[in-house]
Design goal:
The structure is a single chain. The chain has helices at residues 3-14, 30-33, 62-72, 82-86, 89-99, 119-123, 126-139, 168-176, 200-212, 234-248, and strands at 48-55, 76-80, 105-109, 146-147, 155-156, 161-162, 180-181, 186-187, 221-227, 253-255. The longest helix is centred in the last third of the chain and has 15 residues, at 234-248. Helices cover 37% and strands 14% of the residues. It has 269 residues and is α/β, with parallel strands linked by helices. The strands form 3 sheets. Strands 1, 2, 3, 8, 9 and 10 form a 6-stranded parallel β-sheet that branches. The chain is built from 10 helices and 10 strands. Mean pLDDT is 89; it is low at 1-25 and 27-34. It binds zinc ion (ZN). Zinc ion (ZN) binds at residues 55-56, 110, 114, 150.
């Protein structure tokens, strides 16, 4: 008789101050949603998006790629090989350095073994290949759903399906597992010693011209493939800085991470 009213009064005084135990409802009334003003960056129709993508790391050269992109303040994407990270402290340290800058960099799936260099065998066994990508996904602790095939320029997004007959079974398996497969528009080639074939100036000219002539898979979106190992010496990494510096002079160019590429399936991972 006495306890109940006392508790009632007690609850009126104290309970409103206590943290609610139940979560706020997820559904927000429409009337409130429409009143929220979300700042949206105006889209400049002249903007051309540049995606710097570095493959096969962590390797010698990765450190210079990180330093140069931080120095130049440009975003970049690292398609990493799980095994190259997991096999040594060197690999893990580089992987962790990239993770320390989530505003500038992202890490994406480039398989666990890189097919051990035996591409024909890799693509002829699609179930094993899918497991290889899943192993990389787990070892690299990835939260995105973008992959790049080892040694093959294939695309599979909502907007683009471009695969050779050889890799198609693997691409379909990746598609069913919720992955986007990302290729590239231009590769900065390297020689037998793994050194860049072209100068930074020439690469910037090739990129400018390809964008101007609309030679990209998606108009005004340029994906550049490079390999970390190309920039392991000071003189070769200077070429990377030169190319980026020249591209930055164009006020219409904007550097982005590859996860911002248009037409991607939503992440299920
Ligand atoms: Zn590769």
């Amino acid at each position: 008789m006495i306890i109940a009213p006392f508790f009632y009064i007690f609850s009126l005084i104290f309970l409103p101050l206590s943290k609610p135990k139940t979560k706020a409802p997820k559904v927000v009334p429409q009337a409130i949603v429409t009143q929220v003003i979300v700042p949206v960056k105006p889209v400049n129709p002249n903007t051309k998006y540049i995606y710097l993508t570095f493959d096969d790391g962590p390797l010698f050269g990765t450190s210079n790629c990180i330093d140069i992109c931080l120095q130049e303040k440009v975003q970049a994407s690292f398609f990493q090989v799980g095994m190259h990270m997991a096999r040594s402290k060197f690999g893990k340290d580089l992987y962790n350095r990239i993770l320390q800058h989530p505003d500038v960099f992202e890490i994406l799936n480039h398989s666990y073994t890189h097919a051990n260099g035996k591409y024909l065998n890799f693509y002829q066994h699609p179930d094993a290949a899918l497991l290889d990508f899943i192993k990389a996904h787990n070892s690299l602790k990835l939260t995105n759903n973008l992959v790049r095939l080892p040694g093959n320029n294939a695309w599979n997004t909502l907007n683009h399906k471009r695969t050779s007959a050889l890799v198609k079974p693997v691409v379909l398996k990746l598609d069913s597992a919720g992955y986007n497969v990302m290729g590239w528009d231009i590769e900065w080639d390297f020689n037998k010693q793994g050194k860049p074939l072209e100068s930074g100036e020439k690469m910037a000219r090739i990129i400018d011209s390809s964008i101007a002539r609309n030679r990209t898979l998606t108009k005004n979106h340029m994906v550049i493939l490079m390999h970390d190992q190309m920039y392991r010496t000071a003189s070769d990494s200077t070429k990377l800085a030169t190319m980026i510096g020249l591209l930055k002079k164009n006020p219409n160019y904007e550097f982005r991470k590859i996860s911002q590429y248009p037409g991607l399936k939503n992440s299920g991972h």
